[in-house]
UniProtKB/TrEMBL annotation:
PANTHER family, alphabetized: ABC-TRANSPORTER METAL-BINDING PROTEIN (PTHR30477), METAL TRANSPORT SYSTEM MEMBRANE PROTEIN CT_069-RELATED (PTHR30477:SF3)
The protein's name in its UniProt record: Manganese ABC transporter permease SitC
Topology in membrane: Multi-pass membrane protein
Cellular-component GO terms for this entry: ATP-binding cassette (ABC) transporter complex
Originating organism: Spiribacter salinus M19-40
Major localization class: membrane
Transmembrane regions listed in the UniProt entry: 12-33, 42-60, 66-85, 97-121, 141-159, 198-216, 228-249, 255-274
Keywords, in A-Z order: Cell membrane, Ion transport, Iron, Iron transport, Membrane, Transmembrane, Transmembrane helix, Transport
GO biological process, one term: transmembrane transport
Compartments where found: Cell membrane
Alphabetical list of Pfam families matching this protein: ABC-3
Domain of life the protein comes from: Bacteria
Family in the record: Belongs to the ABC-3 integral membrane protein family.
Amino acid sequence: MIPLLSDPTLHTVALGTALLGVMSGVLGSFAVLRRESLLGDTLSHAALPGVCLGFMVTGARSLTGLMAGALVTAMLAAFAMVFLVRYTRLKTDAALGIALGLFFALGVVLLTHIQATGGAAQAGLDAFLFGQAAALSRADLLPMSSVGLVAVGLVVLLWKPLKLLTFDPEYAAVIGLPVRSLELLITLLVALTVVVGLQLVGVVLMTAMVIAPAAAARQWCCSLHGMVILAALLGATAGVLGGGLSALIPGLSTGPVIVLVASVIALGSLFFAPRRGLIPAWWRQGHRLSRTSSDRVLETVYQLACEHGSGRYRVEEGAVDAYHGIATAAILVSLRERGLLEAVEHMPDEGRHWRLTNEGMSYAAARAGRPDEAIGV
């Protein structure tokens, strides 16, 4: 374990995946909020022919050349999508699907052609489909960090316009912001993020890295500022944990493990986040239903007391059961524990009776909309 922690290859992978996680979290937040999750999927698949063309032009697996080619074809796919939406009757999702299928098919054809031609230089080029983080070198970190710094820096610099574009694009256009230029910038930044992640996660799985950290952060945060920061932290955490797990367990591919960790974080957030998580929401709903049932039973006791003109009227438990059509013993006991009712004896063999406490009378009268109305004692 200790020798593994001092492994320079692991350090390089950890730095690269942390950088990818930060970029994915920051840019993915805007994609999720703008409901453009499929955009990341399209750009990641469209990057494959660029990787192949970059290799064919340079004749080597130079990361800079491959990233440049991937960026070019990713942006071409984005322009193709915009063209189809603007000049045809196709909706955005259909245009994204067409661009994804077309460019990915082209990438597979080019990759097959390169592999068929042979040559040692193309060895491992197909690793860009699912990523090969172990092949990352210290030299590769420089272009990755440069791209990441530029992407995050632009988001910080244009924070207010991008925020307004995300939540109210119509108003942004009205006040004169260059909406189309900003949308193009977001697309370009997402494409840059995809390009950075190709070697680490791969074309097929990169969309999950763009979406999962942002989707997880959305469950915990109510502000864009908090969501972007948390998404960046969750993305970096997923990258480092995934890289560490793949190093600890021989035979595991780093890219898929990173995506699995990010997906587990997203699923955990969907279920357990306090504000929007499914389990806390179910608990709150059950609590509200339980509280509503308790209040309805208390109102029944209050109404019977009003009809008899005495707040100290002893209400028979069986009468409350008959009124609601269910056994109310547990609810009545819970009302007693809240200090709203008290159990009393009436006559032998007549069953348990209940009457309102002073607090119970005040609470029930307020719920009935008659807080100032007194019931005779």
